[in-house]
Queue: 3 jobs
Job 1
Amino acid sequence: MIIIPAEKKVDWKHPPWMTFALMLVSLLAFLLYQGKDPELIQGAVSTYLDAELDRLEAPLYQDYLEREISLKGNTDLQQLLDWVEYLESEGDRVGLASLMLSDQTFYRYLRDNRDLLMNSRERRLWQSEREQIQERYISRLSAYEAGLMPSDLNFYSLITYQFLHGGWDHLIGNMVFLFLLGFTVEKALGPGRYLLAYLLCGVVAGLTHAAFHWGEATTLVGASGSIAGLMGMYVAFFGRRKIRFFYYLGVYFNYFRAPALVILPIWVGKEMYHHWASGGDGIAYLAHAGGLVAGAALILLLGRGWFQARESFYEPEAEERDEAFTREYAKAMEALSRMDFTLARQRFEALWQAHPDRPVLLEHLYHLEKLRPDQPAYRDRAVALMHQYLRLQQPENLLKTWQEYLDLGEPNQPLAPEEHNRVLFAALRGDDLKLAEKAFTRVKASGSVDMVREAGRLLADEFSKRQMEPKANEYRMLVKSL
C-alpha cells in the first residue's frame, strides 16, 4: 500500500528548480559516474571465472551462509542460501560468481580466515587472483567508492550515497517521488533551506541504517531516505490540519483527507513492519523510517526558526480560491436579488477585501451606494471606481462613471478638483475635447491656480494641434489672466 500527500499542486510560474537540480544530479551520476560499473563487473566476473575461483569459493560460501544462519540466527540469509543452491544446481557459474563478488562481508570473512579455510596452494591462488580482482574492479565500483558502508562510515559517503542508485527502476521510482514531494517542500522552505533539509534527512537516514547494520560491509545507495525526510517534512508543515492523501492498494486507488501528522506513525510503522517481515530483500526500510522521523523533527523542532515555512505556502491554491470566490459571490448576488441591500453590501465588501484584484466587486459596491447618492459613501465608491478604471486603462468607463456622478452626487458631495483633473487628462487621451472642457470647468471652479494653469495650457495645446486657434487663444488668454 502506498500513501502519498497530495495537498499542493505544482506552481509552474515558480518551478521547483532545486528539485529539478537534485533529479538532474542523480541522473548524471547514474549515467556518467555509475556508467562505468557494468564494465567493471564484467571484468571482475570474467577474471574470477578464468582463475576458477568460483570452484574454490562456492563451497566456502555455502558453509559461510549456513553458519551465519545456524550460529548467529541471521535468518535473513536463508533466501540467499536458497538462491546459491539453485544457481549451483543450474550450473550458473556467472550468476554465482556475481553473487559472491558482490558480498563484501563474505570477502572479509575469507580474508580474515583464509589460513583456516584454505590449504597453502589455495591461499596462494586466492591471494594472487582474488585480491587483484578486489583492487582492480570491485573497489572501483560506485557503490564502494561513494556508497554508504556501515563498516567504513565517513561524512563524505553520508552525502554521496544519496545520489547513487542501483538501477533504472530504482532511479526512476525515486525521482518520481522526489518530484511529487519535493516541489511542495521547496515551495515551503525556498531552494537553499530545502537543499540543506534534504541532505540532513539523508544523513540521518544513513546513520539510522548504519546503526542497525554496524560493522557490515554491505553498501547503501539511493535517495529514498532523503525522500522519506521530505514526506516527514510535508506532514509536519500541516500538523493537525486535514490534507488530501493519494493511496494505492493493489489495483485500486483513490484520495482521502486526514490530519497530516496522523499519517506519520502509520508510515514509520509500515517501514518497521517491512524491516522485520521482509526476510532480507535488500531494501533499507530502517533508513526510510529514520528519514521520516528526521524530516518531521526538523519542522516540529525548528519550524519557528530556521526551517519555518514561508507565509505564501499556506495560501489556498488558485483553484480553491476561485471555488471559494464563486460560492461567496453567489451568496452576495442572492442577497441582492432579494433586495437585501445591507447584507449584499456586507458580502460584497468582504469579497472586495479578500479579492481586490476583481473589479466587478467594486462595481457592485458602487451601484449599491448609488442608491443613496447624497451620502459620502457614494462619493468614496465613485472615486475608488474611477481610480480602478484608470489603473485598468479603461478611460471610457472612467468618463462614464464621472458623468453619472456629476448628475447624482456632485450637488451634495462634490468631488475634489484633483479628481476632475484626472478626468480631464483621461478625456484628452480619449480625444474627447468636449468632455475635457467640461472637466476643466470643474477644475477652474475649485482647483488651485497652478492646477488651473496646467490644465489650461494642455487644452490650448490640444486645440492648437487641431488648428482650432480661436479656442486655443481663448485658453491662452485665460492662463495669462491667472
Job 2
Amino acid sequence: MLNILLQSQEEGTALLTDAEPVEKTLSIIELISSGGVAGQVIIALLFLMLVGAIYIYFERLFAIKAASKIDSNFMNQIKDHVSNGKIDSAQLLCAQVNSPVSRLINKGISRIGKPLADINTAIENAGRLEVYSLEKNVSILATISGAAPMIGFLGTVIGMILSIFEIANSGGQIDIKLLADGLYTAMTTTVAGLIVGIVAYMAYNHLVVKTDKVVYQMEANSVEFLDHLNEPT
C-alpha cells in the first residue's frame, strides 16, 4: 500500500514538473473588442480622425512642395523683361511658371504704370489669398490634435463609470470580466486618443514650417520686384 501511495505522488510531481506555464497574449484587435461598445465607438471615431489627419497632411505637403518649386533665374528674367518694356513676355513667363510667387509678380506686373503704393497693395492682397490657399484644411489638423486626446479621455471616464457601476451592483461579488471591460475601455481610448493627437500635432507643426518657408519666398521675391520698379531709370 505504501509503495502505491509513493508511486502516485511521484507521478503527480512529474505531471506538475512537465506542465509549462501558459503565457496569455492580447492582440490589438482583442484589446479593442474587450473594451465594450462604448470603447469601440470611440476607437472607431479616433481611427477616422487619424485617417483624415494623415490624408490632409500628405495632400497639403505635396501642394506646398509644388508651390515652393521655382526657377532660381525666374526673377532675373522678369526684371530683364520689365526693364526692356516687354510686359507681355513677363506676364507670359509668370503664366508658364504658375506658382504663388509667379502669381504675385504677375499681379504686380499688371499694375505697372500705377503708383508704387497701389502695386504694393495689390501684391499684398494677392499674397493673402495665396497664403489662405496654402493653409487650406491645415486648421483641421490643429483641431484634431486638440480634440483627439479629449475624446480619448471621454472614453476613460466612460470606462471608469462602467467599472464603478459594476462594483456598486455586484452585491459583494465582483465580476472580474465585467470590471475588466470597463478598464479596457478606459485605457485603450486614452492611448488611442493620445496617439492620434500626437500624430496630428506633429503633422500640423511640420506643415506650418513648410508654409512659412513658402510665405518667406513670396515676400522676398515681392520685395525684389518692388525694389526693381523703384530703381531710377
Job 3
Amino acid sequence: MKTKSIVFAALSLTAVTFAQKKEIKSAEKAVESGSYAQAKTEIEAVSGMMGQMDDKEKEYYYFVKGRAYLGGEDNKNADELLKAMEAFTTVNEFNGGSKYGEEAKQFKQQAMNAVISSAVDDQNAEKYGEAANKLYTLYTLTPKDTSYLYFAASNAVNGQDFTTALKYYTQLKDMGYTGIETQYTAVNKEDGKVENFNSKQQRDLFVKAGSHEDPKTVVTESRAGEIAKNIALIYVQEGENDKAVSAIQDALAENPDDDALLRSAADVYLKMDMTEEYEAAMDKVIAKDPNNPGLYFNLGVGAAKAGNNEKALGYYNKALEIDPNYSAANLNIAALMLAKDKEIIEQMNSLGNTKADNAKYETLKKERLKLYADSVPFLEKAIAGDEPNVEAVRTLYNIHIQLGNTAEADKYKAQLDALEGK
C-alpha cells in the first residue's frame, strides 16, 4: 500500500506539471495571435502553481508573462510595460536564462524604450509626478542605468515634490554619481543630423563606410555640482538653511576645484543672500575662466541683489570690457542708470514755486534728460540681438518721446508694435 501511494503521488505531480506547461503554452499561443488580454489571464492563472515548477518551467513562465504584458508595438500602458520588464528581468534568475535569456533581453529593451517614451510624454505634458515614478521604476529594474534616477529626481523637482527629489538626489550623491559620459558622434550625411554611437569602433565603421562624417568624441560635464546644488536648494526651500550650507560645503570639501560645483555653490550662496561667500566662490570660478563675460555679469547680479549698485555697475562694465555687445550687461547698466530717475522726479515734485525752486527744477530737468540720453547707447546694444527685449524697446520709445526725438520715437514704436503683434 505504501508503494502504491508513492506511485500515485508521483503520477499526480506529473499531471500538475503537465497542466502547467499546457497553460503556459496556451498563453504563449494567445500572445502569438495578438490576444494579449487572454494571454495575461491565462498566465496569471498559473502563478499559483509556481511552487510546483522546476527552474526550466519558471524561466518559460516569466518569458511568456513578459511577452503577454509587453503586448503589441502600440502598447503605451506604462504599468503593463513595467510588469513586462520585471518579468523579463526575472527570466535570467532561473535555469541561467539559458533558453529564453537572450530573447528576454531584447524584449526588455523594447519595453524599456516604450516606458521612456511614455515618461517623456508625461514630462512634456507637465505630468512630472508620473514621469518621476516611471523613471524611478526603470532605475529599480535596471540599477546600472543610474541616469534614470537622475531624471526621476529632476522631474520630482519640476513637480514640486521636494521630499522625493531630495531622496533621489541623496541616493545619487551617496553612490558618487557624476553622469559623465564619453559620447562618440558623427554627422549623418543624408539628413545632416548628429548621431550617437555605442562605441568608437561602431562610429568609425559608419564613417569608413561613407554614410557619416565629422566624427567627434565628447566627454559630457559632471552633474555632481548640479546635484549638490539641488540638494542645498531644496533645503533652502524647506527653510533648513544650516543643512543647505552644510550640503554645499561638504561637496566642496570633496571637490574644491570642480568648476560646476563652485558655480552651484555660488548659486546657493546668492539664494541665501550670503554675499561674501558668493563672491569668494565666483572669484575662484573667474580665476579659471577670466575671459568669460557671463561670470562678471553674474557677479553684477549678485551685487545688485545685495543692494550694492556701484559694485554691480563695476562688474557689468568688466563684462562689457570683454564683450561690448553683451546684451544683458548693457540692459542692466541702463536699468541701474534709469533707477535714479525716480529720485530725480521725487526731488522735482517736492519743489515749490519760488525763483530758487524753479531754477532747481530746471537743473533737475536737464539732469533727467541727460540721464535718458546717457542710457540710450546701452539700451540700443541691449536690443541689437536676434531677440530684442520688449521692455527695452518700450523704454527707448518713451525716452525718445521725452527727448523730443520724433523720428527715433516712431522707429521704436513700430518695432514695439511688431514685437507685440499689433
